[in-house]
Amino acid sequence: MIDMDAEKGIDNLRADAQRNLARILTAASEVFAEQGGEASVATVAERAGVGTATIFRRFPTKDDLLAAVIERRFRQLVEDTRRAAEIEQPGDALRQVMLVSVAIYVEDRLVAEAIGTPLFRRPRLRELQAEVTACKEQALRRVQEAGEVRPDVTLADLSLLMAAIGFVGQRLDADAPDAWRRCYHIVFDGLRPEIARPLSGAPVVLKQFGARHDSDASRS
Amino acid sequence: MIDMDAEKGIDNLRADAQRNLARILTAASEVFAEQGGEASVATVAERAGVGTATIFRRFPTKDDLLAAVIERRFRQLVEDTRRAAEIEQPGDALRQVMLVSVAIYVEDRLVAEAIGTPLFRRPRLRELQAEVTACKEQALRRVQEAGEVRPDVTLADLSLLMAAIGFVGQRLDADAPDAWRRCYHIVFDGLRPEIARPLSGAPVVLKQFGARHDSDASRS
Amino acid sequence: MIDMDAEKGIDNLRADAQRNLARILTAASEVFAEQGGEASVATVAERAGVGTATIFRRFPTKDDLLAAVIERRFRQLVEDTRRAAEIEQPGDALRQVMLVSVAIYVEDRLVAEAIGTPLFRRPRLRELQAEVTACKEQALRRVQEAGEVRPDVTLADLSLLMAAIGFVGQRLDADAPDAWRRCYHIVFDGLRPEIARPLSGAPVVLKQFGARHDSDASRS
Amino acid sequence: MIDMDAEKGIDNLRADAQRNLARILTAASEVFAEQGGEASVATVAERAGVGTATIFRRFPTKDDLLAAVIERRFRQLVEDTRRAAEIEQPGDALRQVMLVSVAIYVEDRLVAEAIGTPLFRRPRLRELQAEVTACKEQALRRVQEAGEVRPDVTLADLSLLMAAIGFVGQRLDADAPDAWRRCYHIVFDGLRPEIARPLSGAPVVLKQFGARHDSDASRS
DNA sequence: GATGAATGAGAATTCATTCAT
DNA sequence: GATGAATGAATTCTCATTCAT
Q1: Which one of A116, A169, D52, D149 is least enclosed by Cβ atoms within 10 Å?
Q2: HEC readout, A1-47
Q3: What is the dihedral angle through the alpha carbons of A173, A178, A180, A182, rounded to the nearest 10 degrees?
Q4: Does A23 touch chain B (CB under 8 A)?
């Protein structure tokens, strides 16, 4: 009984702490999604209803907090991407896979701002990105093998385009909420193989946005 | 005589002041292009070889300085765009017109950051953007009338795509300097009319990126 | 029976508590000896494997913890000094007595820092210091009565010199580990009575470093 | 006339700034001398009657301010030492030279604390220390050549002893203002060559407190 | 009794903007 | 008109101490 009580106590404590942690992360997600990474930790603390020191106890650095928020988004992205990759029709699968990637930028100012910054190169995030990349790659390969998309387009190309569209979508979300969808469609429409003209540069090698694999080498 | 002297004095001062102003703008252009809008005014002052107060005499607010720098870039953009629009071959004209638009983002961190922010909505900049838009619109119309680009693509669509590509190009310039060129080509390749599928949303109305004018209404 | 159980419970807890207390003191000794008194309580708690609150339960204030750590060192010092004072040869006895006093500063950054601060004036520490002083005094008297050390040198003088040498020894331990030993020897070499010149000031009365007692008055 | 006015203006400005700088340094000297280097910059700012930002404008880092304060003391020390080194009687010269060195520690808590810390290794301070060392060395050599001080004592030994005595003198200044003077005399009394016993360790090599030179090598 | 969590009170530092010369 | 100086208002981060479990 005593043990149980003790465990309960510990559990409760942890539960409390985790609730607080959740509140911090939620508040941070909201604040940074709305105001970008320049929002002050104090703002987050206020929205979370805690003191700033509480936040710094969990996240030694503001960057750690930002990274945690981004990771959280990416964890959701991994799930969404996996689900999308399971769509049977290859074309639909690729479109959906890429759509969720665009959405993550559109919906979160912090994520959009973080494109190409050191925050995107943190190990944990890299792992999540790798999972997303794997799904995307599979989806792209299926479509290219089905001959529905020009073969010289690489995953990096597509990922970059999605990030790009997502970023401006985010920035213009208030003024023109669906403008980015048109862009997205235009890009996808134009991926058909029959209109492929030789692409100028060498395929992009970018760990952040879809690495090239051996299978790519043969194509280049 | 005294008046003349006074005027001379004032003229001299004005000449000096204008030279100072030029130096400030040049320095600010460089600094903000490299470091983004978060670079301090003091940094700009140092590079310009003037005191900070001198900058604030000309630009009451840092935002005013930022706006002036962006305007300067856009003044150059207007010229470049006009020249590009005069290219005979409609396809080449459009490509070049759009290319200079992409370049402005790639080359300038401040401009890339400013996409969709209030800085882009300042009246003076709006006017310059309108001029650019006019050229772009003309270029697009020519190509569409020549049947080389799908007719349902609007100027806003294209401008958004260029801004998007320019932004990621800017962000990834260090890691993958030419990645954005591939994206740019992919998008242009895909604009052919034969592959057009109906675009989902209504055409975008966005003053910042290619406004539709009354004359456009008939086209929609 | 219930009482006994309760007492057992308390006893068990006390045993636990005392083990905890020991671990805290050990950890604190190490941490403060290495990093000085500015080391955080959290650091101590971590090294001790306890929570910070546990520390504050035993030591209401960080200063109390610091004092306890210093006291612990001085308890050891009392022992070492007593043992040294028992050395037969008066000269050797004094040297050894003083050497252990120097060592306490050299080996412990906290103790070195605390010289002359309120931490050194706490009652409990005073008592320990008194014991040390008694031994030192005896050792000094023996040597002076043997005519091996100039008679006008007081215990306070010597204690001050040892603290001084110990302090710089501590500070320069990394750069010149044995520099203080030379200083120590130079001082002791110079204590011979044949070279005594009249000392300028009145004998120092310093409770912290060798107090004069009533019995001393007759000597002055 | 206009030029003169302009120059006057500039001069006044500079004068004002310099006066402020002087006030900052004076305030900092006082505060740090009394409270040690842990006193907050805000405290200094308050005593100087300026904002903290003003201080940080001149001294980018608190350490820079501390270093400046110490340098200031050492500049005075250089002067005092030079003057002392010119005393004819070698013994008096050495005593006076060393006395001013002790005094700098006694009178300034910051300087006393800084012994052996990185603050003492800053290049500018090193230069000043070198000048002091040169004077001290000369003074020591004179006395040793006159046979008045044991030849195996090095400058580093003496400097260390002076720093040591100065430190405890500083710490005990309130309780026993002149206690350190007795210590100082005891040490000097004991430097006579006739009582020299072989010193145990090798001569200390310590840039901070009197480097060994070639002439020392022959002695070791 | 023990503990991890929470926090208020600082601390250093930065920067856009205003002032005095 | 130009300038360096001054500063108030933030911002990130730390830490001794208190609280809730």
Answers
A1: D52
A2: CHHHHHHHHHHHHHHHHHHHHHHHHHHHHHHHHHHCCCCCHHHHHHH
A3: -160
A4: no
Residue nearest to nucleotide F10 (CA to C1'): A40
CA neighbor of A151 nearest in space, from A208, A200, A216 = A216
Span C91-145, pLDDT tens digits: 999 999 999 999 999 999 999 999 999 999 999 999 999 999 999 999 999 999 9
Residue C60, nucleotide of least CA–C1' distance? F17
One-letter amino acid at D197 equals R
**With an 8 Å Cβ cutoff, is C99 touching chain D?**
no
Count the helices and strands in chain B (H runs, E runs): 10, 0
What confidence score (pLDDT) does residue B134 get? 95
Nucleotides in chain F with any atom closer than 7 Å to protein CB: 1-21
List the domains of chain D with CATH numbers. Answer: 1-58 (1.10.10), 63-219 (1.10.357.10)
The length of chain A, given as a count of residues: 220
Of how many residues is chain C composed?
A: 220
Is residue B210 within 8 A of residue B156, CB to CB? The reply is: yes
Residue of D nearest to C177 (CA): D204
The residue ranking higher by pLDDT, B20 or A220, is B20
pTM for the structure as a whole: 0.87
Q: Please check the confidence at residue A59 and state whether its pLDDT lies above 60.
A: yes
The angle, 0 to 180 degrees and rounded to 10, between the axes of the packed helices C179-189 and D179-189 is: 80
End-to-end CA distance of chain D: 68
